[in-house]
Amino acid sequence: MDDAQTAQEAIAYYREQYDAIGARLLRLQGDLRDARRDAQRQRIIATLIQQLYQLDVAATDPDRQLGERLVALLVESLHLDCAALLTRSDDQTLSVEHAFGLDTGFQFTNLSELPEQAHSAAPEQLPTAVRAAIESSGLRRWLWSAPAGAEAMLFLGRRHEQGAGVGLSFAAGDQAIAQSVLAVYLALSERRRAKHALHSARIDYRTLFESAQDAFVIIDGRSNALLEANQQALSLLGTNCEQLQQRPLISWLIDPDPQGWRRRWRRTLISGRAEQLECQLRTLAGQPFWVELRLIRIGTLERGHLLLVARDISKRKQVELQLRHYAFRDELTQLPNRAQMYRRLEEALERQRQEPDYQFALMFLDLDRFKRVNDSLGHSLGDRLLVAIGQRLQGQLSPQDTIARLGGDEFLILAVDVPDPLVAYQRAQRLERALHAPFTVSGQEIFTSASIGIVLADRHYDQPEAMLRDADIAMYQAKRHEGREHRYALFNPDMHARALADMELERDLRHALKQQELMLYYQPIVRLADGAITGFEALVRWRHPQHGMVPPNRFIPLAEDTLLILDISRFVLREAGRQALAWSRCFERAPIVNVNLSGRQFISSEVATETSQLIAEVGCPPALINIEITESAILTNKALALAGMEGLHAQGFKLSMDDFGTGYSSLSYLHEFPFDSIKIDQSFVSRLTREPRTAAIVTAILRLAETLEKRVIAEGIETPDQLAALQRLGCAGGQGYLFSPPVEASAAEALYKQPSWILPSSAGSGNGTVAGLERGEPDQDR
Amino acid sequence: MISTAHRLALGKARHNDAFTAAQQAARQAMDQLGSAPSWGLVFAGGRHDPSALLAGLRQVLGEIPLVGGSAAGVITARGTTLTGFECGLILFGASLAPGAIVSETGLCDTYATGQRLGAALSAACPEATSVLLLYDSVHSVSARELHLAGPLIDGFNQGLGEHQVALFGAGTLSDLTMEHSVVFNGQEPAEHTVVAVAMPPGLTSHIRITHGCYPASDFMTITRIEGPQVLELDGRPALQVAAERLNRSVAEMAQLSPATLPLTLGEKQGAPFAPFSDDLYNNRLVVAADADSGALILFEADFAVGTRVQLMDIDPQRMIDSAREQTEQLLADLGHVAPVFGLYIDCVGRAMAFHGLDEDESMPVRTLIGQHCPLLGFFSGVEIAPIRGRSRPLDWTGVLALFTLT
């Protein structure tokens, strides 16, 4: 065999093998294709369902697209001429919703007789109307699935053979395919409706969430991550979603206290009980604001979220703050008021209980003679002065100290770091110095001073009231330091005892009024020209059953403070009137009885009526009574005082200005008020012989009185020199221990009948003696 | 200057009602085009009434020339559908007006018709370089005859004379029953009609074909053929030869359909023993077997006695691979030049419904071309594309034409 032959045989061989392999390949490919086709047919349901699901997820308009895709897929995969989804348009009609290859007017009626499924194998079994509808559509083969109770029906049909191996008739499994895909379609539709409802609910939720007036923030219960926040939350915090996400929630709190918040969050998440609190947040720009915050768990214990509902309560807080301000602030000075001081005192006492080294003092500061400022310059200016004083005092305090206005002209100062009396005094001195400089209010320069009661906190105080009481007592003690360089006093238990004694005294004084323990003593008023007694000043005395005679300066101030002075004055008037009447019956020239009226009585417009009634009750002519009134009594209420005095004068009472020279000594009062006489205060008399200046003043008073035709009485004449000086100056009358101390009525009457003194002639007797006269006790009476 | 994006636009819709489907597709395209179109290329599902379809298009587009025809299915970048209720449309802006649109009716003598058409086109647009040719595939329903593309193309080329063009196109087909088909000749739907469009001078065509068939036999010579019926191969009854290869009986073979006959006859172009390449083969789908005559019936009747063919195996995966390879190669050939639109003419026999795959072979084309430009495709009967410099009718082929701006 040559090479050519071998090659030919090889070629033939390989051709034959190639053909054989090719044939085999063709057969295998055919078998494979058949198998694929079979598998594909088997997979039609799965494929259809898969595609429907994909569309259901991806479609922009699933309601429309899903039905349309279903019928398209069926036409495509089953090689149909038509596929249609029909839905119930009413109880008796199924109309085309989606169709390919079928007129949209196609419909089935008389549904009560419509089988759930049918195919063209037995058309004679169909209701006539149904059959007619099918035939009119030109379909030669059909099948449908119309499950009982379902809203939709799937209808498939062919009009002619489809080619490519697909004939006219439906395959055996096509009915099952129709049933299955319809079931899936209906399920998807139902699911979509449910999703739509859910979506609507979500929209409703979202609408509620976003339109809520409250701020909503939702936090993951496990990670504490921010999940959602509504617009109101962003608005409240002045931020946006991104910034809110970036910052820890805790950082929006003014007082973060992370551990406390975590505990609160966990408590809410675990218990499921909502919590509510108020806290302060700050905006992104740092602006603080108040919120009422509710912590609510949403979801389950295992997978709960925390809903924070915040409501801006800044306005409410502001109102509360204002109310609290009003409640704890003095409206005039804007300083803390009594209530606030009580709170601070309570806090300080509590702190001292916990920290024994914590030392503080309470100072009770009362302005001296502030009432005169009010009375003389008016309340408006007085108020402004109080404001200025408050500010000046505050300027002397440390930031830890508290100053409060208690009311009127009283201030309380809680001074911290005051461990001992020395420091307390230093602090009080500083306040004194601060008040030393004059205040200029509305162009008026006003000098003032204050009395300061100090109490050092110690552990026996457990209530603010006790400290305040003791500071008050100390302040009253300081008041008694009038004339001294410093007017402050540190409380000691003796003061308390004194205060208790005052209380006891007050009680006894009330008792005394009822038990007739009070009596009148009379001090003669002597005509200096000849030593004759022209009248007596009635002075009240108290004979205490246990303590004996109580000095007037012990109980009169108390009576003034407690207003018992009114009852005492009535007693004095009545008794003086009775005595004056009695003397008028005994003597041809009856002595005039001087009676002191308290300034308290001039706060009533009825002073004249009441006084005349009292005098009338005892039958005493008003002309026998000389009413002594201090300048301060006039100043309390000038108008009322004027009216009262004019009333008294009109009734026939004589009137004297008492203690002239101690107050403002307004000369205009002498002119304006119907005084008959002036009583020069004993302080002038005591200095008269020692100070030429005083003599000059007294001379001026005498000249003025002479001009105004007022009689002048000098009080407190204790020495012959004083008497001589007064005589020399031309003073008309006088009284004092030089002549006689106050004595009982019987002794007074005896003196009236026969004075115990013989006065020298006033001329040239400057240093002469007065027969029968000796220096007595200083006159401290009323 | 109108931007490229606005030179043409795609619309696609599917609806039970032809008029509505057409309206929707037209509105989509118009919305994208944003200016008056100069003409349109439209392919619509065979179950639509073509007149209603054109009416729907014109209701939106006005009286512009509309060229196209029936399609068993429509392809776009978004997917392939074969319900018969689709409508796909490409609108061309004013700058892409066609060189000429000519049509001829009367496909009984396809060669003569083609000749007239070629002459008319040459006269109307002597400068035409790229021509789209569409013809109604169905010649007779009762005898189930198709119009022959081979003589039509030969006649067309003859009519062109010296004028050489790149000819591509298809025989339109409504569905696999092969009972009905129309073309849109510019004005109306027409049967037994062929239409040729001299593509806009501003466009240059780039064409590739895809097959997916492997040779599965030695070369055989057609020794007897009558039209589409191949009666003998190498002197033996052709059906007998095929039955032996497929290990089936003649009777079984006669019952088979294109869907189950995994067979084409492939005519290799050029050197017979050159390495395998898709574009060397001119395949003809065996659509049926006639037990009485012992013939294999081809879709296209352009083989002749003496044609050397091979039995070709249809491999679905190979179709997909081929489509990907050819598409990638075509895009690579373009280099940096961007295509402005793609036209994919795909044999209906290749549609996924016939070979049991879940993904059809147009997938790579849709995916790759869709990234660059609008893509419109349709399923056809016979495809026309140049092979080795000569346009010819093809079967079991995908013809991908990409157009770039000149």
TrEMBL record, chain A:
Chain residue ranges for the region called Disordered: 758-782
A UniProt-annotated Pfam family: GGDEF
GGDEF domain ranges (all copies): 358-493
Domain of life: Bacteria
Record-linked Gene3D superfamilies: 3.30.70.270, EAL domain (3.20.20.450), PAS domain (3.30.450.20)
Domain PAC: from-to ranges: 275-325
Domain PAS: 201-273
Coiled coil: none
Annotated SMART domains: EAL, GGDEF, PAS
Domain EAL, chain residue ranges per copy: 502-756
Matches recorded under InterPro entries: Biofilm_reg_signaling (IPR052155), EAL_dom (IPR001633), EAL_sf (IPR035919), GGDEF_dom (IPR000160), Nucleotide_cyclase (IPR029787), PAS (IPR000014), PAS-assoc_C (IPR000700), PAS-like_dom_sf (IPR035965)
PANTHER family documented for this protein: BIOFILM ARCHITECTURE MAINTENANCE PROTEIN MBAA (PTHR44757:SF2), DIGUANYLATE CYCLASE DGCP (PTHR44757)
This protein's name: EAL domain-containing protein
Organism listed in the record: Lamprobacter modestohalophilus
Taxonomic placement: Bacteria, Pseudomonadati, Pseudomonadota, Gammaproteobacteria, Chromatiales
Automatic annotation (TrEMBL), chain B:
Coiled-coil regions listed: none
Annotated ranges, domain FIST: 36-237
Pfam families linked: FIST, FIST_C
Domain FIST C-domain: 242-387
Positions of transmembrane segments: none
SMART domains: FIST, FIST_C
Record PANTHER family: BLR0328 PROTEIN (PTHR40252)
Name this polypeptide is given: Histidine kinase
Organism lineage string: Bacteria, Pseudomonadati, Pseudomonadota, Gammaproteobacteria, Chromatiales
